[in-house]
Design goal:
Mean pLDDT of chain A: 85
Number of helices of chain B: 13
Number of helices of chain A: 13
Strand content of chain A: under 5%
Radius of gyration of chain A: 26 Å
Shape of chain A: extended
Oligomer: heterodimer
Low-confidence stretches of chain A: none
Largest interface: A-B, 71 and 72 residues
Order of helices and strands of chain A: HHHHHHHHHHHHH
Order of helices and strands of chain B: HHHHHHHHHHHHH
Structural class of chain A: mainly alpha
Distance between the termini of chain A: 55 Å
Largest sheet of chain A: none
Helix content of chain A: over 70%
Number of strands of chain B: 0
Shape of chain B: globular
């Protein structure tokens, strides 16, 4: 009797056909995409590709080392010449871009989250506006930053503002949605108390929801800032002044060694940003 | 100063950094206005938003639907392939990177420290930059795009998985240890299943990110939605462009709805 009870419970569990179909679809497509379509890992390991790889590895070696053989001073000299003047021009605009954009995105996202949250007081008049806010946030985050930037450059030309606005648009969508979800997941007691006192939606949001959710908002801010540094790096490929510009420049000149150096510089910057964000978050947690 | 609490200080710090950055970039409000005034294609671009077309503006008797379907297929193919590889690589790495598993008595701390460094490196390279590197080595093939997206995806999944294992509740693992399981067995069977709901959330989130990354890779020659958008934009065919943009927005909307519904059902089950 005792061994059949787990089986009986298992058979009686609530099942959802939608979930079953979805899970089979996911598993099937994940495997099918490798078996039935033109993806193949072995195709990458053919003789021609191996030749490319060895040529790439030799291209990667810094130019002075190829000419004069390996030496630390030659490597240091090359690093100094290549990075020397460009370090500030590459790194600082990237960081500045990310900071301004995410701050703007946080502010706009918070404003839109007042409309987009579902569990704040407000009657019919807010339902339509709320739906519009959610739709707007969706469109903003559906379009990747790089694509926003490309479109803005297309229409408005290069400059600091198109880059800032592109990053800010995508991140407003993300941060706005995260803020709305945070507000929806808050303990409903305090907002209800405000509502009982007669506060409107905006008042409840700013006076009750935002202070409660502040910790999470800050966490999301730093998480998105890390991502924004990453995206800002790559925006340079479109022509903006950031590390990506130097990568594109080196690529155009076929200087694989310099290109790789700037890619590593970008990685170092992102890792540094990651570390800094972890430090700030930990210090906030202990307050 | 003692009226500004710790929160106020953080916000003030962020505000100061923002102002400093804006000054550094020489951003000024009247630059925006000037940009708006000088742009002639802005008006064409925004009015075309109301008239998207799926008929080629170049050759008026060709439909764009086959191209759109192919672009959607490639975008989904890259994202699904990348998330598959990402899970395959990310989950084992996550277990290897878990401080809790490897810091336990009998474990080797060097394992989790090295793997965390590896994960940080994997996460630090942007998909586009990886794609540029891999294109130079392996040429333009769909697998190159999939690998370029998969590596940061695997890194992020590994990092989140490791953090989830570190923060999972100890109840089941303690029970297993008390009946004689080895620490590794107790961790794998006790901690890992606790992480599954949050892991699903992050996998769905990364799938959406992979879709966006696949779209952007279209700018580098891969035939995804981004490629279609690029080609229309280069010729200033704004109506086609908006049709593809709507398709992208629709794709992201459906994906978000689907994943939200699945997460809702899994929570209830």
């Amino acid at each position: 009797m005792t061994t059949s009870q787990p089986m009986a419970l298992y058979r009686a569990r609530p099942r959802s056909r939608f979930l079953m179909i979805s899970l089979w679809l996911m598993a099937g497509s994940t495997i099918g995409v490798w078996l039935c379509t033109d993806l193949s890992l072995s195709a990458l390991w053919q003789p021609r590709e191996k030749a490319h790889l060895s040529r790439f590895l030799s291209d990667m070696t810094p130019y002075p080392l190829v000419e004069h053989g390996w030496s630390w001073s030659a490597l240091w000299g090359w690093l100094h010449d290549t990075l020397g003047t460009r370090f500030e021009t590459a790194v600082l605009p990237t960081v500045a871009l990310s900071v301004v954009s995410v701050s703007i995105a946080a502010a706009c996202g918070l404003v839109l989250s007042v409309g987009a949250a579902r569990r704040l007081p407000g009657g019919q008049s807010w339902a339509v506006f709320g739906g519009a806010c959610r739709a707007l946030l969706l469109v903003m985050r559906a379009i990747p930053t790089y694509l926003w930037a490309y479109l803005l450059v297309l229409i408005f030309g290069l400059g600091a503002w198109p880059a800032v606005i592109a990053l800010a648009l995508h991140n407003t969508g993300t941060l706005g949605r995260m803020a709305a979800e945070t507000i929806d997941n808050l303990d409903p007691g305090v907002p209800r108390a405000f509502q009982a006192l007669g506060a409107g939606r905006a008042q409840t949001a700013t006076l009750a929801a935002f202070p409660q959710g502040f910790g999470r908002f800050l966490l999301f801010f730093f998480v998105r800032w890390e991502t924004a540094v990453r995206e800002a790096t790559v925006l340079g490929l479109l022509g903006f002044v950031s590390i990506g510009w130097f990568i594109a420049d080196a690529r155009a000149r076929m200087q694989t060694d310099v290109m790789l150096l700037f890619i590593l510089l970008a990685s170092a910057l992102i890792i540094a940003g990651d570390a800094m964000s972890v430090v700030v978050r930990q210090s906030l947690r202990h307050r | 100063m003692n009226r500004i609490g710790p929160r106020g200080r953080v916000v003030a710090g962020i505000a100061a950094a923002t102002v400093a950055s804006a000054w550094f970039l020489e951003l000024s409000p009247h630059n925006i206005v000037r940009g708006l005034e000088h742009s002639s294609s802005a008006r064409a671009f925004f009015t075309a938003a109301l008239h998207p077309t799926l008929v080629s503006q170049d050759l008026p008797d060709t439909s764009l639907v086959p191209a759109l379907l192919h672009g959607l297929f490639r975008t989904l193919q890259f994202a699904v392939g990348a998330i598959g590889l990402g899970i395959l690589g990310g989950l084992p790495l996550g277990i290897l990177a878990s401080q809790r598993i490897w810091q336990a008595p009998g474990g080797h701390p060097i394992v989790w420290r090295t793997v965390r460094v590896l994960i940080a490196l994997m996460r630090s390279v942007h998909e586009l930059l990886l794609a540029i590197l891999l294109l130079a080595i392996f040429g333009r093939s769909p697998t190159v795009a999939v690998i370029a997206i998969a590596i940061p995806t695997a890194g992020t999944l590994a990092k989140v998985f490791a953090e989830l294992i570190d923060e999972a509740e100890d109840g089941a693992a303690a029970a297993l240890r008390s009946i004689g399981a080895t620490p590794l067995q107790a961790s794998l069977l006790g901690l890992v299943p606790r992480t599954i709901p949050d892991l699903c959330t992050i996998v769905f989130y990364r799938f959406e990110c992979a879709l966006r990354a696949a779209t952007v890779l279209g700018f580098f020659g891969f035939q995804t939605l981004g490629y279609l958008i690029l080609k229309s934009a280069e010729n200033l065919y704004f109506q086609e462009l908006w049709a593809f943009l709507y398709a992208l927005i629709g794709l992201m909307f459906l994906t978000e709805r689907w994943s939200a519904k699945i997460r809702g059902l899994m929570v209830r089950e």
